[in-house]
C-alpha cells in the first residue's frame, strides 16, 4: 500500500487558504514593519541610546527566524492549523505583557521573544500551506497572500500613530495584542491537504483518503547542496539590509523636522508601493519571462542602489519618491525569494528548506539593526544606516547569481542523465 499527498487543487479551497494567509501576513509582518513608529517613544521613555533601543526589534526579528525550524518540525508533527493557532496566542501574549511597561529588558522578553516566536509560528505554516495548495498559480497565489502585509501596513501606519497619541505607546501595544488574537481564527481556516492511500483496489479505480500521517524529519542535509548553501548566504546578507530601512525611515524623516504624521504617511506610501511590487512581480514570475532567480538578482541589486541613494533626500517629497521605489522593489523581492526555494530544493524539501532559510537569515536580521544603530550613534547621522543596508543587499545579489548557475548546471546534468533512459525505454517499446 502506497501513500501520497493529494494533488494540489490549484484553486477551490486553496483561495480560502490564500485569504487566510493574507490576514496572517497582515497581523504579523505589518506589525513588525511599523514598529519604527514606537521607536522614538520607547527610546525617550527609557532614556537609552539608539543602538540599545534597536535591540527590541532586533530580538523580535531574530526570534522570528530562529523559531522557523521549530515551526517547520511542529507543522510536520501536527498541522499548519495547530501551529498557527499557537502562534497567534504567543504573539498576542507578547504584546499584552509588553504593555505592562516593567522595564526595557521586559520588552526584550515580551516583544522580542514572545512576539517573535508568535510571528514565526504563524508566518511559516501560512507560507507552507499556500505552496502546497498551488503549483501552476503558486507565484501569484503567494504574491496575493503576502500582499496582506502591505494592505495592513497602509492602514496600521496612521492607526498606530493615532493609538500612540490617544493611549500612549503602552496602550497601543495592548490594543494591537487584542487584534493579533484574530490569528487564531485564521489558523482555524487552514485545512491541511489529505493523504491518499493507494491499495491493490486502486488498480480498479478505488482509493482511500485518510488523514495525513506526518513524520518529524528535519533535513539538515540540504546544507550540503552548494546551491542551497549559497542561498543561505544570500539570506544572511539580505536580511541584514532588509530590516534596517523600516526601523530608521521614521527617525530619519523626523530628524529633518517633519511633523509626526508626515513620517507615518511615508510608511503608508511605502506599503502601497510594496503591494504593487508584490502583485506585479508575482504576475511577471507567473508569465515565466525570466527564471525566478534571474528576476530576484535584478530586483535585489536595484533595491540596494535605491537605498544607497535615499539619504540624498532632504525634503518630504524626495523621501516619498525613494521610499516608493524602495517599497516597490522590496515587494518584488518578497514575492519571489520564498517561492525560489522550491526551484532549489523541490517541493518535497520546501518545508525543511524554508525552516533552514529562516533560521540562518536570523543572523543577518539580528546583526543588521544594532549595527546600523551603532553607526547612527557614532556618526549622529541616520544616512549611515541606509548606506549599510544598500551595501548588504548588493552583496547578497552576488550569491543569487551563483545559485542560479548551480541550479541550471544541475538541471542540465539531470536532463542528460535521463536522456539515455528515455532512449532505452523507447527502443524497448519499439521492439515489443
Provide a short characterization of the protein structure:
The chain has 432 residues and is mostly helical.
> In percent terms, what proportion of residues is strand?
under 5%
Q: What's the total count of β strands?
A: 3
Tally of DSSP helical segments: 16
Net shape = globular
- Derived structural class: mainly alpha
What does this entry look like structurally?
The chain has helices at 14-33, 36-46, 50-77, 80-98, 104-133, 138-146, 148-180, 182-188, 226-242, 244-255, 261-287, 292-309, 316-337, 340-345, 350-379, 383-431; strands spanning 2-5, 195-198, 208-210. It has 432 residues and is mainly α. The chain has a three-stranded antiparallel beta sheet, with no helix packed on it. The protein is 78% helix and 3% strand. It has 16 helices and three strands. The model is unreliable at 202-216 and 419-432 (pLDDT under 50).
Amino acid at each position: 500500500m502506497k501513500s501520497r499527498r493529494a494533488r494540489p487543487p490549484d484553486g477551490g479551497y486553496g483561495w480560502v487558504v490564500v485569504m487566510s494567509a493574507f490576514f496572517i501576513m497582515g497581523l504579523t509582518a505589518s506589525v513588525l514593519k511599523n514598529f519604527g513608529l514606537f521607536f522614538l517613544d520607547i527610546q525617550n521613555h527609557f532614556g537609552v541610546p539608539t543602538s540599545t533601543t534597536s535591540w527590541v526589534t532586533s530580538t523580535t526579528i531574530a526570534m522570528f527566524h530562529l523559531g522557523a525550524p521549530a515551526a517547520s518540525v511542529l507543522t510536520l508533527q501536527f498541522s499548519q492549523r495547530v501551529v498557527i493557532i499557537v502562534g497567534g496566542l504567543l504573539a498576542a501574549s507578547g504584546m499584552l505583557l509588553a504593555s505592562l511597561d516593567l522595564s526595557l529588558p521586559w520588552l526584550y522578553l515580551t516583544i522580542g521573544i514572545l512576539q517573535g516566536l508568535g510571528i514565526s509560528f504563524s508566518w511559516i505554516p501560512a507560507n507552507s500551506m499556500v505552496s502546497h495548495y498551488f503549483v501552476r498559480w503558486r507565484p501569484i497565489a503567494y504574491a496575493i497572500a503576502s500582499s496582506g502585509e502591505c494592505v495592513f501596513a497602509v492602514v496600521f501606519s496612521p492607526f498606530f500613530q493615532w493609538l500612540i497619541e490617544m493611549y500612549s505607546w503602552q496602550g497601543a501595544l495592548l490594543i494591537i495584542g487584542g487584534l493579533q488574537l484574530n490569528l487564531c481564527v485564521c489558523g482555524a481556516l487552514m485545512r491541511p491537504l489529505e493523504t491518499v492511500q493507494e491499495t491493490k483496489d486502486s488498480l480498479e479505480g478505488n482509493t482511500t483518503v485518510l488523514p495525513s500521517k506526518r513524520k518529524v524529519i528535519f533535513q539538515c542535509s540540504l546544507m550540503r547542496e552548494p546551491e542551497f548553501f549559497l542561498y543561505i548566504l544570500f539570506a544572511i546578507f539580505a536580511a541584514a539590509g532588509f530590516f534596517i530601512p523600516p526601523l530608521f525611515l521614521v527617525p530619519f524623516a523626523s530628524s529633518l523636522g517633519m511633523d509626526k504624521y508626515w513620517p507615518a504617511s511615508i510608511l503608508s506610501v511605502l506599503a502601497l508601493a510594496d503591494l504593487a511590487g508584490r502583485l506585479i512581480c508575482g504576475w511577471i514570475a507567473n508569465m515565466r519571462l525570466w527564471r525566478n532567480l534571474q528576476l530576484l538578482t535584478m530586483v535585489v541589486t536595484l533595491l540596494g542602489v535605491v537605498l544607497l541613494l535615499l539619504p540624498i533626500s532632504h525634503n518630504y517629497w524626495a523621501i516619498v519618491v525613494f521610499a516608493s521605489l524602495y517599497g516597490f522593489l522590496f515587494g518584488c523581492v518578497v514575492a519571489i525569494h520564498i517561492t525560489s526555494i522550491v526551484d532549489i530544493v523541490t517541493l518535497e524539501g520546501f518545508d525543511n528548506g524554508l525552516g533552514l532559510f529562516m533560521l540562518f537569515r536570523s543572523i543577518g536580521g539580528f546583526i543588521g539593526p544594532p549595527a546600523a544603530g551603532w553607526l547612527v550613534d557614532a556618526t549622529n547621522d541616520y544616512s549611515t544606516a541606509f548606506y549599510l543596508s544598500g551595501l548588504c543587499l548588493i552583496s547578497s545579489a552576488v550569491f543569487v547569481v551563483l545559485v542560479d548557475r548551480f541550479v541550471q548546471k544541475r538541471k542540465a546534468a539531470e536532463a542528460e542523465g535521463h536522456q539515455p533512459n528515455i532512449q532505452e525505454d523507447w527502443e524497448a517499446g519499439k521492439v515489443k
